[in-house]
Amino acid sequence: MWNLHAITTLLFLLVQHALCSSPTNNLILPLKTQIPSNKLPFRHNVTLTVSLTVGSPPQNVTMVLDTGSELSWLHCKKAPKLNSIFNPSSSSSYSPVPCSSPVCRTRTRDFPIPVSCDPNKHCHATISYADASSIEGNLASETFHIGSSARPGTVFGCMDSGFSSNSEEDSKTTGLIGMNRGSLSFVSQMGFPKFSYCISGRDSSGVLLFGETNFAWLGPLKYTPMVQISDPLPYFDRVAYTVQLDGLKVSGKLLPLPKSVFVPDHTGAGQTIVDSGTQFTFLLGPVYTALRNEFLNQTKRLIRVLEDPNFVFQGAMDLCYQIPPSRRSFSDLPTVSLAFNGAEMSVSGETLMYRVPGMMKSQDSVYCFTFGNSDLLGIESFVIGHHHQQNVWVEFDLVKSRMGFAQVRCDLASQRLGSSL
């Protein structure tokens, strides 16, 4: 949810082949990473994109996969900076959603901004994002082609106006696929009981899978239940993938924090969201400060802190280091573990540090700790980005309302699933 359609990326996870069906009728999407430029804001660094076809006859589109958003949408109006759009007038299966329809009246209830009625009595939606980007247009139904099957009547947004915080990057895709738990999300409309992804930390491979994960080579997943609050609260996203963070450890040492700091308060602030649209992990102020202090204490003889109190990388990452050319890895740094109810996720080695593009201090490179302070971003939640999910099989089980995690070599997982690129 914190990665917006703006798609400001340092890494793309790009589907370059068509969907394929596994022997168990799972849908498998191969993923690949690319590195475009070094100048882009970090909050949207990693995005998953899928290439598919929409309409009759089918039109090729590329869409960002976002587990933090509900409505899928496509650019439908030509603009100078858009390289790809969907043309509804060329599709015989395109149908606008009228304001009077149940879809418009009841299934949009979880949209952050209420829908309205345009002059033609079509259901009009406006979607805004945390970086001040916004997009608007009419809801419509259309045929989405997933693998070898056609899915008619899929509801999406046919967007014709908006503002992007990074129009250059926005031009590289046609739209966005919303994958949260909302009624109109792509995964809800398709009826998939579960989906998983696995992103390699070693090379450009990865995989996104819709369906079961009963593979002999994949060890048992550790599950944690999704947290659900039925009452509407101002700061609680009811359709996000929310889990209960119980604590953090540094080299096995549990931070001395009360359990209450991890529990949403009466306003809903403090939920823990697993979001494919955010690269790094953000922690609320008191928890971040405790982690920062302990990590500093355990690394003071290993790496040199950047002595520049005015430098905060992209406004959120304020623990940075000077790293000499002689240091080849970060394998000696302490592991940071996120403990959940029934599961744990560990962050170690290279994943703990992120090189600040183009910044040097004397002959040293500047790296920053890959945990940030939610308070500095104005976010009222813990957000687990998928930089910290590299080489972890992450399963979203929608039927049993739980998430599963297992450490795995994701490059090898791609090969075993026949999707290595």
Characterization of this structure:
This protein is mostly beta strands. The protein has helices spanning 102-106, 167-170, 186-190, 285-299, 374-377, 410-416; strands at residues 11-14, 20-21, 27-34, 46-54, 59-66, 73-75, 95-96, 116-117, 123-128, 134-146, 149-163, 175-178, 194-199, 205-210, 222-225, 242-243, 245-250, 253-254, 271-274, 281-283, 304-305, 320-323, 336-340, 344-347, 353-361, 364-369, 371-373, 381-384, 392-397, 402-407. The strands form 5 sheets. A 6-stranded mixed barrel has the order 4-5-12-6-11-10. The chain has a 4-stranded antiparallel β-sheet with strand order 18-17-23-24, covered by helices on one side. It is globular. The chain starts with 10 loop residues before the first strand and ends in a 5-residue tail after the last helix. Residues 1-24 and 32-46 have low confidence and may be disordered.
Averaged pLDDT, please? 84
Strand order across the largest sheet: 4-5-12-6-11-10
What is the terminal separation in angstroms?
28 Å
Structural class: mainly beta
What fraction of the residues are assigned to beta strands by DSSP? 35-45%
By DSSP (H or I, 4+ residues per run), the number of helices equals: 6
- Note the main sheet: 6 strands, mixed, barrel
If you compute it from the alpha carbons, what radius of gyration comes out, rounded to the nearest whole angstrom? 21 Å
Low-confidence stretches: 1-24, 32-46
How much helical structure, as a percent, in the residues?
under 10%
Total DSSP E strands: 30
Q: What oligomeric state do these chains adopt?
A: single chain
| Cα shape | globular
